[in-house]
Amino acid sequence: MTLSFAHRHVLEDHIVGFETKPNPHHLAVARRPTILSVLSHAGFEAGVKAALQALEGVSVRICGPAEWLAVSHSVGPEALLRLVRAIEGVSAFDHSDGRVLMQITGPNVRKILSKCLAVDIDRDRFPIGASASMQIAHVAGNLARTGEDAFEIIVPRSYAGTLFEEVKEMGREFALTAAFSPE
C-alpha cells in the first residue's frame, strides 16, 4: 500500500475563498518557499556570509551573530541544502515546512507594520536589503525589507494564522487584500 500526501498550506483556510484582485496594499503568502537556517562555526563567519550572498536565487536574512536564513523561491530545499552544506564552516537545516513566508506591499506598508512592531523601519534606518529577527504582532519572526514599499515576514508555521489575521486587521484601514502568491 502506497500512501501519498498532498501538501496543504497552514493558511489555506484563512485565504481560500477570499482571494480578491490585489489592492495597492497586499499581503501575499508564498506556498512553497525554501527556507534554511544557517549557522557559522566559530572563525568562519565572514566566509560563510560571503558564500551565502554569492548563491544565485537566494536571499540571505540576518537572524543574529553568525546565523542567517537562506530563502529562495526558485531553488528547492534539497538542492539549496547541498549548496549551503558545501560551504566550509557551516551547519544548515531545512525549515521550509516549519516556516511561513508572507510579503506585504503598498505605499503605506510602514504604517501597517508599525502597528505590529516595536522597531523603527524608517527608510533610512531599515534600508532595502535589511533584515532582523524581532517580535511581529507578539510573534517571533524575521522581517526583511525587499523593496521600496515591500517587506517579507517569516514566522513559525504554528503562529502563521495568528500573525496573518493580526496583519490583515492592522491593514484594514488601507483595504489590505491577501492571497497566495502566483508563483
Automatic annotation (TrEMBL):
Cited InterPro entries: GCVT_N (IPR006222), TrmE/GcvT-like (IPR027266)
Q: Where is the signal peptide?
A: none
For this protein, the record's Pfam families field holds: GCV_T
Give the highest taxon in the source lineage. Answer: Bacteria
Query: Which ranges carry the GCVT N-terminal domain?
Result: 68-178
Write the protein's name: Sarcosine oxidase subunit gamma
> Which species is this UniProt entry from?
Rhizobium straminoryzae
